[in-house]
Amino acid sequence: MSLLLDTHALLWWLADDPELSTEVRSRIGEGRTRVVASAASAWEISIKAARGRLEAPDELAAALERDHIEQLPITVRHATAAGKLPRHHDDPFDRMLIAQAQLEGLALVTRDPRMRTYDVDVVTT
């Protein structure tokens, strides 16, 4: 199963934060699982870091490459799918991750219980 990391899961992985469960940590680090980070997460991290709301690596792309995390761009197909999702969740970044997980056949790694209201596989952090 390929994994798409929600923004908080990505940050926890990069910071080696114990909030990330041992199971998820093992799956990400084992090297056999395809692990993906969305451009939406990079965008969200950049915005929140600029506002002083979180700390993030200065070189996010390099950190992803170092940890063998694949970068997933946002496409027009992703954007239109996100816009058509039911309004269970209004966060635009999370809606994009849901659409990408659905369209790309990825399991979404998240702690957010609202993600389960969509037709998407969820792995709880």
Q: Give the H and E element order.
A: EHHEHHEHHEE
Low-confidence stretches: none
The count of β-strands is 5
Mean pLDDT: 95
- Intertermini distance: 15 Å
Number of domains: 1
Q: Label the overall shape.
A: globular
Q: Can you name the CATH architecture?
A: 3-Layer(aba) Sandwich
Can you identify the CATH class? Alpha Beta
Keywords:
125 residues, alpha/beta, Rossmann fold, 46% helix, globular
What does this entry look like structurally?
The structure is a single chain. The protein is an alpha/beta fold and 125 residues long. It has one domain (3-124): 5'-nuclease (Rossmann fold, 3-Layer(aba) Sandwich). It is built from six helices and five strands, in the order βααβααβααββ. Helix 3 packs antiparallel against helix 6. The two termini are 15 Å apart.
Secondary-structure blueprint of this entry?
Blueprint: E1 3-5, H1 7-14, H2 22-29, E2 35-38, H3 39-50, H4 60-66, E3 70-72, H5 76-84, H6 92-104, E4 107-110, E5 122-124
Parallel strand pairs: 1-2, 1-4, 2-3, 4-5
